[in-house]
Design brief:
This protein has 16 helices and 18 strands. By secondary structure, the chain is α/β, with parallel strands linked by helices. InterPro entries: PG_1098_Fer, SAM-dependent_MTases_sf, Thump-like.
Length: 392
Amino acid sequence: MVQSILSEEIQHFINEKINADVTKLALQKNPFPEVEWSLILQQVAAKQKAKSKLPTWFKTQNIYYPSKIAVEQTSSEKTAEYKASLVSGDHLIDLTGGFGIDDYYFSKRLKHVIHCEINEELSQIVSHNFEQLKSKNIECITGDSYQILKNLNQKFDWIYIDPSRRNEAKGKVFMLKDCMPNVPENLNFYFDYAANIMIKTAPILDIAAGLSELKSVKAIHIIAVENEVKELLWILEKDYVQQIKIHTLNILKEKREEFNYNYQSENRTNYNLPKKYLFEPNAAIMKSGGFDVIPAVFNLEKLHKNSHLYTSENKIDFPGRVFEMQSYFDYNKANLKQFLENKKANITTRNFPETVENIRKKWKISDGGDAYCFFTTDMNNNKIVLLCKKLK
């Protein structure tokens, strides 16, 4: 079936329909009755998704896509390139190969990469795609990664793992022990074959929870793309017992915002009422929980212990959004009627009892415009509204 999809006629059709509405396309008659229409439509939908997320794959001829969902769930090229910058040496084995985006970038940094995949069809697809991408130093092996590692019985510079949640774990608190493979249970086994392990997890995993299950954690990297956290990377080094380093990265179109600090380092926080400028940390920093490190590093003051908004009389280069304060006032009926009712504004809530949706509905505030409003709590536990102009 893969070969049928890769025929010149069908590939031409897929490329021709790359901007089509797939739901409408599905209502049309299949011009290739020898191949299931759903499979062709799947290729169109998946390649559409790959256009911005996987531009190298999108531009390469004769790539076969497993499904649109698989493309949605895989690493982006931006995050894969960053992961590759963290490894060194000669040999890496990926125990959960998937669509192989990470391995493609690992192969640019190391001499030899092994892609393990338990799904035989996916393994064959990835092997085919690596040939199209001219990646000659990646070896694809089908089967259970635990057994593959045991059978190979060789030392690697790195083991890479992207565990997936078991179906029966849906709805529960995200724990690594509920994933496949069970990393906490197999950790000693993995360290027999590599001194360095990189684990990728979804942003839903709580950092404290992850640390309670893992040992020898050297660093945690929190990666956001356009201010949306995409993944956490856990760097483990055999027998490591020293300070854990937190790295936050927000990949933007024209630059990168990086902020690093030591986990659970002691910092004194000063509080104050809103001043001329307001600072909101990016999503990667928010996920990291390093709220009390920011004031010391950037010489800022915090509005409230739980508000995670910062202020200063000085404008600074800051990893997040920066606003100039226009005015602020107590949250009450009279003030809202005067300043915001029936107006247009961008609304954010931080440490505030009402949702953005409720605030908009109650005061008839439409979305958009140049005004930015923060509904929050100040150092005296008063509910306040900040009216701001966005600078960055």
